[in-house]
Amino acid sequence: MQAKRKDIRALTRDQLRDFFVKNGDKAFRGNQVYEWLWQKAAHSFEGMTNLSKDTREMLEANFVINHIKVDQMQRSSDGTIKNAVRLHDDLVVESVLIPTKTRTTACVSSQVGCSLDCLFCATSRLKRMRNLNPDEIYDQVVAIDNESRLYFDRPLSNIVFMGMGEPLMNYNNVLKAIDKITSPEGLGMSPKRITVSTSGVPKLIRKMADDGVKFKLAVSLHSAIDEIRTSIMPFNATFTLSDLRAALVYWYEKTKSRITYEYVVWEGINDKRKDIDALIDFCRFAPSKVNLIEYNPIDDGVFQQASNKAIDLYVDLLEENGIVVTVRRSRGKDIDAACGQLANKS
Ligand code: SAH
Which of 106, 113, 115 is nearest to 137 (CA)? Predict the structure, then answer.
C-alpha cells in the first residue's frame, strides 16, 4: 500500500534541500524544485523540465501538489471577474478580480466559510469549514495575476484580504502566504499593496504590530457604538470597541501606518448624527481613512442602504474633522461578487 503522499508546498526551502540530500542527491535540487513550486507556480512534477525523469518520478511517489482549480469564472458587466476556486478536498471558496482604469485588485479568501456572525454578510451563513493553507491563498493570487495579464494586459497591482473568512483567525497561514507573495522567491509584490481586512480581533492586531508586518490594515467597523455594533456584529460583545481601540492605538504607535475603516451606513441603524460623532471620536487617535461602502443586499431586506443625505452628512462631518473619506461604489454586484456577497452561490 502506498503511504499517504505529503503536500510538498508545506515544506520550507531547507526541508526540501534536506529531502534531496537524504535521498542521495544534491541540496541545490531542492532550490530548483522550490522555484518551480513558488516562482513558477507549477501544477505538476511532470512540468519541471530541468529535472531528470527519475527525479520527477521520485517526487511524484512522495509528494502531491495540492493546486487549486478555478472551476468557474464569471465576468460582470463592469469587468469584475469572480473565480469559484475548488480546493484539493473539493471545498470551494471564491476570489474576485476588480479592475479599475489603472489597477487590478485581487480580493482573496482566507477561510472556507467564516466563524464570525456579521448579520449583514452572506459568508457568515456558511459555517467555517477550515482555514486555507498558505499555498491555497497564494494560488488564488497567482490565478488572478494570470487573468489580469490575459484580459487586461497588465499584472496584478493590489491585494485585499476581503474575500471569505476572517484573515486574523487564520493568522499564521495568512502571514506565510503574504511572505511568499512579497518575497522575490514568490511574486515579489510590495507589502504596501496588500491590505488585510479584519472585523477586529484585538489580541491579533497587537500581534501583527509586534511581528512588524508591512502590509496595510483595514478594520470593518460599521459602528463606533458598542450596543449597535454588537447588534449587527455579535462577536463585538467579546471583542468590545474599547479593546479594539486600545489595540489599534498600539498598532499605530508601533507601525505609524494609517488605519482604514470600512463602514456601511444603514437606514435606521447607524444613520444618525450620534453615530457620526462616535465614529469621529473613535478615529481621532491616529490618521484615519473611512471607506463608506455601498451596501450589497444579501436577501431578507432587514438591512437597507441609508439615504444619500445621510451619507453626505457622514462625508461632510468626517472631512470637517480631518478624516479622509471615500465613498466606494460596489463592483460585480450582478455576479454576487461584491463585498459580503461571497457565498458559493454561482
Ligand atoms: N472578515 C474580514 C474580511 C471579509 S469582509 C472583515 O470583516 O473585514 C470584507 C468587507 O465587506 C468587510 O468590511 C465587511 O464588513 C464588508 N461587508 C460584509 N457584508 C457586506 C455587505 N452585504 N455589503 C457591503 N459590505 C459588506
Answer: 106
* DSSP letter assigned to residue 133: P
pLDDT tens-digit map of 258-271: 999 999 999 999 99
pTM: 0.93
Cα 40 to the chain's mean position, in Å? 22
pLDDT digits (tens, 9 = 90+) for 68-86: 999 988 999 999 999 999 9
- Burial class from Cβ neighbours inside 10 Å (0-12, 13-18, 19+) for residue 60 reads middle
**Residue 140 near residue 161, CB atoms below 8 Å:** no
Q: Tell me which residue has its CA closest to atom 9 in ligand 1.
A: 162
Give 158 Cα–ligand 1 centroid separation in angstroms. 18
Distance of CA 9 from the midpoint of ligand 1 (Å): 30
Contacts of 219 (CB under 8 A, 6+ apart): 197, 198, 199, 200, 244, 248, 259, 260, 261, 262
Residue 296 region by backbone torsions, left for phi larger than 0, else alpha for psi between -120 and 50, else beta: beta
Q: Which helix (H) or strand (E) holds 56?
A: helix 53-62
Measured distance CA(323)–CA(98) in Å, rounded: 26
Between β-strands 92-99 and 81-86, what pairing exists: parallel, antiparallel or unpaired? antiparallel
Half-sphere exposure of 74 (CA within 13 A, CB side): 19
Residue 306, CA atoms < 13 Å, CB-side half-sphere: 23
Kindly list the protein residues whose Cβ atom lies closer than 6 A to any atom of ligand 1.
Answer: 120-121, 162, 166, 197-199, 220, 262, 264, 293, 295-296, 298, 339-340
